Amino acid sequence: MDQTEALVKTIVEGLQEKKGKNIVTVDLTRLSGAICQHMVICEGNTPTQVSALSDSVWDFARREAGEKPLSIDGSQRAEWIGMDYGTVLVHIFLPELREFYNLENLWSDAKLTQIADLD
């Protein structure tokens, strides 16, 4: 497992820690012109949970992979938080915004992997 794949795994663990739902990983490594190698898309039920998910990803990535995001956007309203780790982009949405932007469909020619929700 390379460093980027290990980071994706760590990000998913951070999302699962705070009960992130409908986690999908998007492997963009085979697409030319992609803006990153992987995306992780997730949703939280409320702005408070979206914020907690972002904090958890930050903590897990820092502690487990020694990585800090290059930038974080959307923390103020916590409806859609984007975290840029360079090779990995993390999108944490409220359900209605995730449905509206439908990133999975936008990147449907990439390899999508649904991660089972933890109960």
TrEMBL record:
Localization: Cytoplasm
Keyword set includes Ion transport: no
GO terms of biological process kind: cytosolic ribosome assembly; negative regulation of ribosome biogenesis; negative regulation of translation
Keywords, comma-separated and alphabetical: Cytoplasm, Repressor, Translation regulation
Pfam family, one: RsfS
Family: Belongs to the Iojap/RsfS family.
Role description: Functions as a ribosomal silencing factor. Interacts with ribosomal protein uL14 (rplN), blocking formation of intersubunit bridge B8. Prevents association of the 30S and 50S ribosomal subunits and the formation of functional ribosomes, thus repressing translation.
Protein's UniProt name: Ribosomal silencing factor RsfS
Organism: Parabacteroides acidifaciens
